[in-house]
Amino acid sequence: MLALYFILLVCVPLAIIMTFTAPRLAITVAVNQPAYLVIQNSSTTYTPHRVVTSQQLNNDELLLHQASKVNRKPPPKLPKKLAFMFLTTTSLPLAPLWELFFNQTSHHKSLCNVYVHADPAQKQKPDFFRNRIIPSSKPAYRHTPTLVSSARRLLAHALLDDPSNYMFILLSPSCIPLHSFNFTYNTLASSTKSFIEILNNEPGWHDRWAARGPYAMLPEVQPEEFRIGSQFWTLTRSHARMVVSDVEIWSKFNKPCVRKDTCYPEEHYFPTLLHMRDPQGCVSATLTHVDWSVSDHGHPRTYKPSEVGAELIQKLRSARLRYGDGGGTRKDSFLFARKFSPAGISQLMNIARDVILN
Which keywords annotate this record (predicted)? Predict the structure, then answer.
């Protein structure tokens, strides 16, 4: 009996001390659900992935620094995963199509993760993927560096969340898949290169380079190093790590512009950085189709419900990618397309199984 009292006297206070240590926020994957970010209070040192403090989550610099320390390559014995990252300011009106896309295979839970960056100031949040919203989401606006910051934030969370994330795909709310999940997965998981549009000497490129002032980009980004490309890309894990580790080039693009009409950092920062750091590791084309033959105040063509049909999907699939630096004779296929009107979700769902995901 004395021994029992002694054990209680020693162990109970110790348990209380351990219980009331300051809780940390751990990024982990929810059980029995598709993988995504879950923030939970944790008093223990164990977590299946990296532990991130609340201060790091709310401070971009600390968050990016933590993400820069992850492994360059995924674990060799685990299946490669695709990280689908949606950058949105409001809802995800085409989410039902994406739900169907992800649920096509019973193995999707072990082959992909979903992350959503949603503006916390907006009252209308995504109905689907609501519990995939990263906790450090912040407002994002055109003609400012905030769209780039949002993408870097998504990359940081995806890197920290799952060491098996191999390819990181940036998507918009108006994007749709053009192929089945299996086709998309096999295409990207077998690639050793990033897919990012890297274009040189585009019309008006010098005005874009000088959008922050005639000397603001110097000396780090010389005019001849400046590149332009689609803001939607697919990056390898090593390139995702490169982006979150970058301080030097980002310090130039993270400046306010003096001319808004030429200020599109989200189309300049990523292609310029990858061109300067590892052009040989990139396929210089985007896998997201967009039609710029019709432009509306700086936005590409939006497909109306009446235009949605099997013929349009086949046309987008067969379109040839535009390759920039070092494109060579590659013949890759578009995997995604934008912009599709939210009003066209019914038409998209009507052809989803037999056409889009077939």
Answer: Glycoprotein, Glycosyltransferase, Membrane, Transferase
